[in-house]
Amino acid sequence: MATRKMEKTAADFREIPLHSLRINSVTNFDIYIKVAARNQEERFVLYRERNIPFSESARKNLTDCGTDILYIDASDEKEYQLYLENNLEAIIKDDEVSHAEKSNAAYQCAIGLVEQLLENPRSGEHVKRSKLFISNLVDYLLSDSHAFFSLMTSMSFNYLTYTHSVNVAVFGIALAHKLGQFTQHSINTIGSGLILHDVGKGLIDPRILDKNGPLNDDEWAVMKRHPADGANLLRSLGNVSEQALIIVEGHHEKLDGSGYPRGIRGVDVHQYARIAAIADIFDALTTRRPYRPALRSFEALELMKKEMSEQLDRDLLREFILLLGDRAARI
């Protein structure tokens, strides 16, 4: 007896923006459009098969019909992620793509990449991809004065390790750029360290990492090893510079010696690690956790200024406050 093929539902598809598809590029995923006849459930119809170049006429037809959102099968998410990474440079340099669209593409690209990296932290290929992404992100942040605040509007403020890593990278790169003392090569290095800073958490038992409540002493001891474990893992892969690893290993160190894993203090805390600490703490305070609400930006900055003045670099914190400016009162 013939078996009936199951009809796919909306849960089987993922949205992708039309502007993410580059003219004459070959997509290694099928593209669908959503249609809904009157009094009928919406259906997803195959619009363009994989491995066919996406043409200007196809874009025009979609635009003329008012279609700016397309769909892919959920099973093709990783293929789309690779496509987005490979085409991100073209997207952010396209004058016809809005600031919001560029930022959303960059942010979603980063989220997908870091999520895969944390799922398989021992993958040298994921680390290599992160370096290419950071190069594009730094180009975007340094060349477009609207980029930083546009990216902030794209950010997720629900705490997940991979969204946190992306947010910290954006904040830290923007701060490094504002200081005006680093070359673009150095900012790329800083960015690589920032986006990889929590890779050690990918080695932690999810029951500890995702625990909804305070950690006990044994669990906290495991958690405090993640900077060193992450740096050692990346060092073993051999494709991350020692300068970037300063951030991975040192982002929880504090100037008063109260940090971890080494408890170093003062001048022993590298400037890269000081930048990372400010970005890391600010994002942690301004994102929602199961056990506490997020602080407003100005509340987080006020807390950091008043209660962490002995732990954080005051000059860098002042520059970070100036970077956010009066926007901090509204976010």
Please describe what this structure looks like:
The protein has 331 residues and is mainly alpha-helical. It has 2 domains: 8-75, no CATH class; 98-330, Hypothetical protein af1432, CATH 1.10.3210.10. 53% of the residues lie in helices and 6% in strands. The chain is built from 14 helices and 4 strands. It has a two-stranded antiparallel sheet with strand order 1-4. A two-stranded antiparallel sheet has the order 2-3. A hairpin with a 7-residue loop joins β2 and β3. α4 (124-143) crosses α6 (161-179). The chain is globular. It starts with 12 loop residues before the first strand and ends in a 7-residue tail after the last helix. The model is unreliable at 1-5 (pLDDT under 50). Pfam families: HD_5. It comes from Candidatus Abyssobacteria bacterium SURF_17. Residues 139-331 form the HD-GYP domain.
Spell out the key features of this protein:
single chain, 331 residues, mainly alpha, two-stranded antiparallel sheet, 14 helices, 4 strands, 53% helix, globular, disordered N terminus
Biggest pleated sheet? 2 strands, antiparallel
Distance between the termini: 60 Å
CATH class of the largest domain: Mainly Alpha
CATH topological fold name of the largest domain: Hypothetical protein af1432
Computed over alpha carbons, the radius of gyration is 22 Å
What number of domains? Answer: 2
CATH architecture of the largest domain: Orthogonal Bundle
Topology order in helix (H) and strand (E) letters: EEEHEHHHHHHHHHHHHH
What's the total number of strands?
4
The percentage helix is: 40-55%
**Uncertain regions: pLDDT < 50 for 5+ in a row?**
1-5
CATH homology group of the largest domain: Hypothetical protein af1432
Query: Which word captures the global form?
Result: globular
Pfam families: HD_5 (PF13487)
Protein name: HD domain-containing protein
InterPro entries: HD/PDEase_dom, HD_GYP_dom
Domain HD-GYP: 139-331
